[in-house]
Target: Bifunctional diguanylate cyclase/phosphodiesterase
Amino acid sequence: RADVGLYRAKQAGRNRTVLESSRQLPLAVELREAIDRGALDVQYQPIVTLGEAGAKAVGVEALLRWSSHAQPEVTTEGLIRVAEEYDLIADLDELVLRRACADAARLQETFAQLDLTLNVNVSGLELAQAEYADRVAGILADSGWPADQLVLEVTESELAAESETAIANLHKLRERGVRIAIDDFGTGYSSLSRLATLPSDILKVDQSFVASIRSDSPAPPLLGVIAALSKSLDLQVIAEGVETEYQAAVLTELGFALAQGYHYSDSQPVTELINDLNERSGLVGASSEPSTNGW
Ligand code: C2E
Ligand code: MG
Ligand code: MG
Ligand code: MG
Model:
């Protein structure tokens, strides 16, 4: 795999990617140790409803963070790529899933009025491992997090790899009640016929489409197409990267029901998210009682 995008350097005021493969090995070694020590962080970004009733959190997406390493300029995507290249991804994704199930249980306990869904990203490489679905089932059993409140997100481009094992895993997971989201949808060139047969429940529309919603230009036509498509295929759809009220309004108009983005909240450690949701009790429903258990 090419390591484009691994490092992000600011040059001439814009983000630029540079190739520095010689720095991958030390990073992989450091990452291996961090995984073994559990010294990685997971943050959570709310997924909210769009529409007249106002934004209400219905779930969170778990996102890997690694603050304490020697190369802070490496992006999360870069870390994932190193983990994939050095065969660390299975352990990394398992660590995130275990941590996320425990943190989600804390959130669910604090906000009992919420029917919280937990979204966790999974590498396409992982999904193609024969024992993957069983491993997920084991982690759910250990943690007690309900399968039908878990969504696994895999990117459209990784699903395009057409692995039979991956498809079999998706079927097994869905039989257990786990839902599957196709992440970064619209950038992976799936054919419509393939999309209709993929074992999936949710489309997450890539941020680039949302970013192109601007008040000074017409709404990108593909967004309406994706909204209609998801309806006819009976898939839920989530708009990612919503940063402005204007974008939220346009998406609502186009028929989108769910959104995620800085306009609502950035990702945060679970303790901060709990505090934040307590302060913004509208996000979790009016009946929210402030948490008193000291988290
Ligand atoms: P993703 O799953 O598509 O996650 C959404 C990304 O958009 C996240 O970047 C999030 O921080 C960012 N984001 C959220 N709201 C906004 C917004 O309003 N505007 C903009 N511009 N960005 C926003 P992040 O955290 O850097 O993660 C990058 C990617 O790394 C993720 O993309 C996902 O594919 C992957 N990833 C993250 N955590 C894991 C993990 O635990 N395992 C695996 N396999 N992949 C992961
Ligand atoms: Mg995702
Ligand atoms: Mg995405
Ligand atoms: Mg992405």
Remarks:
- Residues 1-19, 287-295 have pLDDT under 50 and may be disordered.
- Strands lie at 7-11, 14-18, 41-49, 57-65, 117-121, 150-155, 179-185, 202-205, 236-239, 258-259.
